[in-house]
Amino acid sequence: MVEAIFKTHDANFAARPVSPFDDGLLFGNNGFITAPYGDYWRFMKKLCVTELLSPRQIERSRGLRHEEITRFLRKLIRSAAKTEVVDVGALLTQLTNNTICRMVMSTSCSEENDEAERIKDLVKRSFQLAGKISLSNSLGPLRKIGFWLYSKEANEVTSTYNELLEKLLKEHEKKAKNNGGEFDREDKDLMDILLEAFHDEKAEFRITRGQMKSFILDLFIAGTSTSSETMQWAVAELINNPEIYKAARDEIESVVGTSRLVEETDIPNLNYVQAIVKETLRLHPNAAFIPRVCHQDCKINRFDIPGNTPVAVNVYAISRDPAVWENPTEFCPERFLVSSSKSTQTNKGQISFDFIPFGGGRRTCPGKNLAYALMNTTIASIIQCIDLKVIGEGGKGAKIGMEEAVSMSLSMASPIQCLPLVYFNPFEA
Ligand code: HEM
Predict the structure, then answer these.
(1) Out of 149-153, 287-291, 343-347, which region has the weakest mean confidence (pLDDT)?
(2) How far is Cα 28 from Cα 43, in angstroms, rounded to an integer?
(3) Which long-range contacts (CB under 8 A, 24 or more apart) does 398-407 make?
(4) N or C end of the chain: smaller count of CB under 10 Å?
C-alpha cells in the first residue's frame, strides 16, 4: 500500500491536509511543510535540494557541527568531573537547536544570545499551540471554541516571531549590502540563500517575506526535535544494551584509533554506528504517522479512494511488522549491516518501503542527509568518550524506562537522568 502511495501514485498523494490555521498565523498554509503541491512548493523543494540542504551546504557547515558536538562533549566531561547528574535529552536538544540556529542564521541559542534564545522559545510555544489547536480542530462543531481560546495567544506569538525575524532578515540584508549586494559569500547561511532568492527578479517563483519567515520556522520545527528525540532513543537503547555500546566503541577505536575525537568524515567507515542510528529510526520513528491527501479519485489494490481523502501512512506499524522484520520489537542494529546474514532485510527495506522514517516520494524529508550527519557523529562521539550511569532505583545495571510520551512526535516519556563518566577525553592531549 505504501509503495502505491509513495511511488506508483506519488504525484496524486503529494499534498498534505490543509492546515486549520489562518494563513497569517504561524503554521498557516504559508509554510513549506503544509504547502499545497503547487508552484511555491516546487520552487522551495528545488531550492532545498540544490542549495539550502544540498550536499555542498552540508559540507560547508561541517565545521559548525563539529564545534557544537565539541561543546556538548565538554559539558558532559565537566559534569563528570563534578560528579553531576545530567539530563542527556536537554543537552541533545540544546545541541540540535544551536546547530540548526547557526546553519539558518549564523547565530546560536545560548544564554548569551538573547535573540536566538527568544526564537527557540517562540518555536516551542508555537509548537505547543499547534498541538492544542489541532486537537480542538477535531472536536467537530465545537472546534470554534479552540480558536476562540487560543487565537489571542496565536496572534501574539506570530507577531513577536514576525518582528524578530524581520530584524534578523534586515541585518542579513545590510551585511549583504556592505558586501556589494552579494549574498553569495563562502560562509553564507540559509537565511542568505533565502534572501538571494527573494531579491532575484528573474526567479521562476517570487517568494514573499511571509513565506520566507514560515520556511525558517519549518526548518526549526522539522529539524530540531526530530533529530534530538531520535538521539535520545538511541542513547537509551545503548544504555540498556551494553554489549551494543561496547561493540560500537570497539569499531570506533579500530577505525579512529585512541588519540583523537571521531569526526563526521569517519562515518562512512563506521558501519555499526550507522546501523545503530538506523535501527533507532526503525524502532522509534519520530514521525509515527505521515499525513498526505489523495488529490484525485484512484484505486489502490481493491480500494476505491475518492479525491480529497486524507491518508495517514502508519510508519510505526510498518517498522514493527513481524511479516517483514524478525523479532521486530528487539533493538538489533545487526539487521542493518550489509555483511550480516540479515542484510536482505535492509535491501528489502530500501526497495520495498519497509524502512520509511523519512517518508518517501517527492514529498520525502529534504533534511535526511543533514539529520544523518548530525546524529551519526553525535552518537559516535558519545560512545567513544562517555559512559552513562543510570541514576535511580536499581543501582548498577539499572535501565532507562522506554515508555513513549503522548505528544505530536514519538518522544520519550521520561528524561534520561545519568551520571556521565569519562572513558576517553579527546581534549586532554
Ligand atoms: C531524525 C530526523 C528527521 C526525521 C525522522 C524526519 C522525518 C520527516 C518525515 C517523515 C517527513 C514527511 C515526509 C513525507 O511526507 O513523505 C519530513 C518532512 C520534512 N522534513 Fe524531516 N525529518 C528529520 C529531520 C529533518 C531536518 C534536519 C530537516 C531540515 C533542517 C528536515 C526538514 C523537513 C522538511 C522541510 C519537510 C517537509 C517536506 C515537504 O513537505 O515537502 N527534517 N521529515
Answers:
(1) 343-347
(2) 18
(3) 399/239, 399/240, 400/236, 400/239, 400/240, 402/236, 402/240, 407/131
(4) C
Domain residue ranges in the chain = 1-422
- Which fold does the domain 1-422 belong to in CATH? Cytochrome p450 (1.10.630)
Cα 246 to ligand 1 centroid, rounded to whole Å: 31
Nearest CA to ligand 1 atom 9: 358
pLDDT of residue 142: 61
Say which residues have a Cβ less than 8 Å from residue 382's Cβ, sequence separation at least 6: 73, 76, 235, 238, 388
Residue 365 annotated as lining a ligand binding site: yes
Q: What is the pTM of this model?
A: 0.92
C-alpha 100/C-alpha 199 separation (Å) is 23
Q: Are 262 and 73 in contact (CB under 8 A)?
A: no
CA gap 151, 156 in Å, rounded: 8
Residue 345 — very low, low, confident or very high, per pLDDT cuts 50/70/90? very low
Residues with CB under 6 A from ligand 1: 32-33, 45, 53, 100, 218-219, 222-223, 226-227, 230, 286-287, 290, 357-360, 363-367, 370-371
Dihedral, 242, 246, 249, 251 alpha carbons, nearest 10: -130
Over pLDDT 70: what percentage of the chain?
A: 85
Spatial neighbors of 179 by CB under 8 A, at least 6 apart, are: 185
The three-class DSSP label of residue 416 is coil
